[in-house]
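Issue 218. Parser rejects a valid record. Input:
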Amino acid sequence: MSDPTYTATHALLRQRRTIHDFLPEPPPWRQVRKALEAARFAPNHYFTQPWTFYRIGEQTKAAIVDLNARLVEAKKGATAAQKKRERWAAIPGWLVITSRISDKPLTRREDYAACCCAVQNLMLDLWAAGIGSKWTTGDVIRAAEFYRLLGAKRHQEDVVALLWYGYPRIVPRAQRSPLSSRLVQLP
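Output the parser choked on:
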């Protein structure tokens, strides 16, 4: 007989999907805040707690959508930019997660990894509540203007994730290589 907690956790880990299409209604903030609380319990070496979570409001969202559309237009033209603008403007919930930058290269790497664990905790907690998410890291998060919109200092924080969230319109099927193609067994 399997432990119910293990069974539920294992299922949650295997069933979580990246959501690309969201319903327009945003999830309640209290549920997202609860997921952020879970994110804080990610492992972090030397208990550095290097993360900062930014809740993106409508004004900042509009500015990020505009910034991204300008970046897309410069690379792919006006039609692609307009399509991206419409898609991004329809996403109901936005968070940004950053990692504090350490002067020590090893600590900086460990802190970034800890923030990735925090994002995973956040996404899993949201999924358990029926809320989907997408972790994106496109050109927009590397733009100096993006940091200005956050009020973040580029030399003090690295953006780890622009995280979109909301109720899924479509849940995609799993697409993973078999474990045997990624497992190296040593003697």
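Fixed in the parser; the record now loads. Residues 105-128 form the longest helix (24 residues).
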